[in-house]
Amino acid sequence: MSVLASAVPARRLPRAATLLAAQHQSSIAAVPRAAAIAICRARVLAARAASRRAGRAGAPPGAGTGPARAARMTTISLSLDTPELAQAYEHGSDRQFNHGKLLIETLGVRRGQRVLDVGAGTGRLAAHVAEIVGPEGSVTAIDPLPLRVDIARQKARVNLATAVGRAEDLSAFATKSFDVVYLNSVLHWLNDAQKQRAIAEAARVLKPGGKLGFSTGSREKPHQLEPIQRKVLADLGRDAQGNRPYKLTVDEVRALLERAGFIADTVEILTFVDHAADVDEILKHSGSSSFGNHLSHLTPEEKREVRERLAKELEALRTPQGIRLERNLIFAIAHTAGN
Ligand SMILES: C[S@@+](CC[C@H](N)C(=O)[O-])C[C@H]1O[C@@H](n2cnc3c(N)ncnc32)[C@H](O)[C@@H]1O
């Protein structure tokens, strides 16, 4: 699975992060870097303009404006995880792990720091961060899914602790006790009220001048699979809602951070490119990443039908490397006031 073809925020990324991005660059490698930057930036600006035209710009998360928000009736369940899904995530989450490493580079995590990984899943990224902070530092990894925390616990060591816990309730941790808090591919699983509590809690547990970083799905630039899947579901007469993530726009992310008192350093959309062997690999990844929520509103028969139709649609995206899909994430880095 190859990852990352983004140049949008390269100017603002630290050099190490830019190099990491370049190492993973795949499908747009043939596009001159300056041209790629211009294309991606133009797309982001266009998406922001569209978002403003739709009257959503600056609306605080949870404001419930617009028909899309009004129609949103689904909830994400934390009760659908299974041992198989948790293991599949542990062995098939290179995408999240690789963009997570980029997030950590961008945050500038360094030796000796106290770090909180919120929604750590099976703990792959937390273990990587434990290497960076070394024995003088520490990483605490929390996740609400006990099956995933069980796997993360196997990676525990002197400077890496794991626990079951949720982003919205960090009461287990003292005020001003961490240098860095991050959420990698987590925030879009929280509804608007939960997001606000999570970011407020992160602000509380961070030391003055402490850093918050997160990667999260972009609503203005959705995953390339989304419109294809929506069409397949519509053709079957099924709604496309299901238990799908609650994505935000760049402007909504900025509003969310400001509301909690954060000073935003970077809020940008990054475009990543993935290649998959076939539709089953894509569906397996979606199932394990969503801890069982993806397409969970369908019957087994409907799921089989969706798989068949998706397989046909996705063949149009096949390249010599596999089925090529673009994925867009908002990367946000912010800090609390203080020294
Ligand atoms: C796609 S996984 C990302 C896991 C990990 N951060 C990584 O980079 O591999 C999403 C994770 O978000 C977690 N999650 C869902 N709701 C959450 C909440 N309310 N608080 C904290 N984590 C949550 C899930 O349990 C799941 O492990």
UniProtKB/TrEMBL annotation:
Molecular function terms, GO-annotated: methyltransferase activity
Keywords attached to this entry: Methyltransferase, Transferase
GO process terms (BP): methylation
InterPro entries referenced in this protein's UniProt entry, alphabetically: Methyltransf_25, Methyltransf_Superfamily, SAM-dependent_MTases_sf
Keyword Methyltransferase in record: yes
SUPFAM superfamilies from the UniProt entry: S-adenosyl-L-methionine-dependent methyltransferases
Keyword Transferase applies: yes
Record-annotated Methyltransferase domain positions: 115-210
Gene3D superfamilies per the UniProt record, alphabetical: Vaccinia Virus protein VP39
Protein name per UniProt: Methyltransferase domain-containing protein
